[in-house]
Amino acid sequence: MRGVLCLIAASLLPVFAEDPGVEKIAALAAAERATILFTLPHRDVGVARNGHVEWIASQTAALSHDGTRVAWIAPGGIRVRDLASGTDRELFATDSTPEELAWSWDDQRLAVHDGRTVSAISVSTGDIHILLSTPSALSSLHWLHNNRDLVVQVAEKEDDEAGVYILSEATLRRLDTGSNPVVSPRSNRVAYYASKEVVAIDAEGTGRALLLRIRHAHPNRIVWSPEGGRLLLNRGDEIHLLNLMTHQDTKLIDRTAIRVLAWN
Questions:
Q1: Quick one: which of 196, 164, 159, 158 has its CA closest to 177?
Q2: What is the pLDDT of residues 183-192, one digit of tens each?
Q3: What's the rounded Cα separation, in Å, for the pair 142 and 136?
Q4: Cα separation, 214 vs 195, whole angstroms
Q5: If pLDDT is split at 50, 70 and 90, which confidence band does 217 have?
Q6: Fold (CATH) for 10-263
Q7: Where would you tag: which of 74, 86, 90, 221 has the fewest CB atoms within 10 A of its CB?
Q8: What percent of the chain has pLDDT over 70?
Q9: How much is the pTM?
Q10: 235: confidence class by pLDDT, cuts 50, 70, 90
Q11: What DSSP designation does 96 have?
Q12: How many helices (H) and strands (E) does the chain have?
C-alpha cells in the first residue's frame, strides 16, 4: 500500500472524536487514491477522497463507478453531485421516498427501489423505465455488467431467510440462500454472506466457492475493492479487508458504527 497522506479538515475533528473510524476511512481513500462512500447512524453520508471527507445530507446514497459523482435521496427526489466541481442538480422529482440507489457499470443509469417498484432512471435525461413491480422485500441492488440485469436480495418469509436473486426481464431467478450480494468490478462474480460464511458465485449459478468463515453473525454490506482483488467486509462493529488471493482477513477498524457503501 502506498504511503498515506491524510489531510484532515479541522471541522471534522468532533466527528473523528466520536468515531475514529472516519479518520481511518479518509486515510484508506488517500492511500488507495480512491473515493469511499460511507454512512454513520443518524448522520449524513460521508465521501472520503483526496485525504479529506465531505458530507451530504442524506442516509441513502450511491457512488458512480468512476468515482466522480454521488447520487442521493433528498427531500422531494434524487439529486446528483459532481465531486470535482461540487455542483448539485436534481435528477428526478418524486413524492415517494426511495429506499436504495445503484449505478449501472457504465454510469448511465440508476436503479431505484422505492418499496413498490424497481426502476432504472437515465442519468442524462431523467427518463424512467420500470424493471419490476412487486411487493417483494428487495434490497442490496447491484447491476450486472450487461447494464440490464440486477443482483438483489429478497426476503423469504417462508423460512425467515434471505435469498440472492437475479432480476432479469421482470423475472426473479434464485441463485442461493444469502444476504448482501455485490458484483465484482471485473466480472459477474457475486460475493455475499451465507450464514457464517462469505462465498462467491457466478451470475449463472455456477462456481460457488467459500471465501471466508466468520466467527460471528451480524454481517452487513460487502464492498469490492476497485481492482477486484479484495473485499471490504462490514461485520458488526468491525470493518475487515479480505485478500482474495491469499485469503488473509485483516481487521482495519474496530468499535465503529461506520458502514462503507462503495469504494471506487
A1: 164
A2: 999 999 999 9
A3: 16
A4: 9
A5: low
A6: Neuraminidase (2.120.10)
A7: 86
A8: 89
A9: 0.89
A10: confident
A11: S
A12: 2, 24
